[in-house]
Design goal:
It is built from 16 helices and eleven strands. The chain is an alpha+beta fold and 445 residues long. It folds into four domains: 41 residues; 99 residues, Phosphorylase Kinase, domain 1 (2-Layer Sandwich); 195 residues, Transferase(Phosphotransferase), domain 1, CATH 1.10.510.10; 89 residues, no CATH class.
């Protein structure tokens, strides 16, 4: 590649390039003195030294500064002590800067309005905002200080050879979905949901963080400014254009169109797909390639056979390019995912019916075990392998498809407990049948 363009540099510093493009820039900078120096200068300007911030005598307003936690283009975060409430809080200092037609005063007011909306939101799965205000020309947020790690770190904590199972992963994501649903209920759209923006506390509680405040605190990115009906720069976090991380971004967000809760549904399903299967559902080195991949639909993941079919279908629906084809709300998605984790009883809705059907399945398994033992079917050939074909939903109720899936999986699981019996997946069986037909056709010819 050639030298880094200003637009690419801005996207790189904001972390909004695709991983492949980011690696390409890093490799180029290693061999180009000019670009390496430009990158260093931009980094120093974008991520200032927290110690250089104007914090006098270890205080910021009433907050007692304990230590810096981190810094970014939007400002600095400190661990502080609130003497009024006698607790530790994370103090985020934002520095709104206007550009692209957006005045600093307008950006500041937007930040304050939406931060106050977050402060009114009280939910165990959303990072709590205790206070918001202005001091010394800086907007600040006092937030819950969480000791723990991000969802990204949690997912990587397990060795690649023994990744976390889908049930464990889904349990964490269900809590994150509850946090997003609570935010949507008060009119907030995250627009940048990804594993890095989910915290897992040492107390085990899941908290969704960074509801678009970083995007509202900085100027609109190049070539992606959303405008309102009067042609003015749109300041609303719901209308800001290319805010967020491209790999998790809904296609309407890539285009700079107004977004609603369904954009968060898409981003959530991208992150869940990645966590369950270990890979992103869409591949692409550029935004254009990524947008084309989304239009073509998610690729079939490796290891899909280990994940319930109903979970794969839910993800496929949530990853639709057309927002109208997705779940209309996070609550609707949450309901479907909860049923997957609860298992077959949730789909049946009746414990007695569930017990009767599963009991019948167990009897079938026992009968099969008896048959394989050789009595009373001594003259029958031994059964060494079996295929459990998917059960069809012959009712007029589409929701009963989950019942059929649940029964198929329950039978497969029960049969798998027979040590001498090999269970052949439906996909493998179809491949064997196709190969067998091909060989027979070759012999006939």
């Amino acid at each position: 590649m050639g030298c880094i363009s200003p637009d690419d540099m801005a996207l790189f510093m904001e972390g909004r390039l695709l991983p492949a493009a980011q690696e390409e820039i890093e490799e180029h900078a290693e061999g180009c003195d000019a670009c390496r120096e430009l990158l260093a200068e931009t980094t120093r300007a974008t991520f200032p030294d927290p110690a250089a911030e104007p914090v006098q005598e270890g205080r910021f307003g009433r907050y007692e500064i304990v230590r810096p936690i981190g810094a970014g283009g939007m400002g600095v975060v400190y661990a502080t002590r609130d003497p009024k409430l006698h607790r530790m809080v994370a103090l985020k200092m934002l520095r709104p800067s206007g550009s692209g037609g957006a005045a600093p005063t307008e950006l500041r007011e937007r930040i304050l309005r939406e931060a106050r909306a977050m402060a009114r939101l009280s939910h165990p799965n959303v990072l709590a905002v205790f206070d918001v205000g202005e001091l010394n020309d800086q907007v600040f947020l006092a937030m819950e200080l969480v000791e723990g790690c991000t969802l990204t770190t949690w997912l990587r904590a397990k060795p690649a050879a023994t990744p976390r199972g889908w049930r464990e992963v889904l349990g964490v994501f269900l809590d994150a979905a509850r946090g997003l649903a609570a935010a949507h209920a008060v009119g907030l759209v995250h627009r940048d949901f990804k594993p890095d923006n989910v915290l897992i506390g040492n107390d085990g509680r899941i908290r969704v963080t960074d509801f678009g405040l970083a995007r509202a605190a900085s100027s609109a990115p190049p070539h992606a400014t959303a405008r309102d009906q009067n042609g003015q720069i749109a300041l609303s976090m719901q209308k800001s254009a290319l805010a967020g991380s491209p790999a998790y971004m809904a296609p309407e967000q890539m285009r700079g169109d107004p977004v609603d809760a369904r954009a968060d549904v898409f981003s959530f399903c991208v992150a869940l797909h990645q966590a369950v299967f270990g890979e992103l559902p869409f591949a692409g080195r550029t935004l254009q390639e990524l947008e084309r991949a989304v239009a073509e639909g998610p690729r079939r993941p490796s290891g899909a056979a280990k994940v319930p079919a109903r979970l794969r279908r839910i993800l496929a629906r949530g990853l639709q390019a057309n927002p109208e084809s997705r779940f209309h709300s996070m609550e609707a998605l949450l309901q479907e995912l909860s049923r997957v984790r609860q298992g077959l009883r949730a789909y049946l809705g009746n414990r007695a019916t569930a017990a009767a059907i599963l009991g019948g399945a167990s009897l079938a398994v026992v009968a099969l075990m008896y048959a394989t033992a050789g009595s009373p079917f001594r003259n029958a050939p031994a059964i060494h392998s079996i295929v459990v074909l998917p059960l069809d939903n012959l009712s007029s109720d589409p929701s009963q498809a989950y019942f059929a899936d649940g029964m198929t999986e329950e039978l497969t699981t029960s049969l798998a407990r027979i040590g001498s019996l090999k269970i052949i997946s439906h996909t493998s069986w179809k491949v064997r049948c196709r190969d067998s037909a091909t060989r027979c056709g070759s012999r006939r010819n």
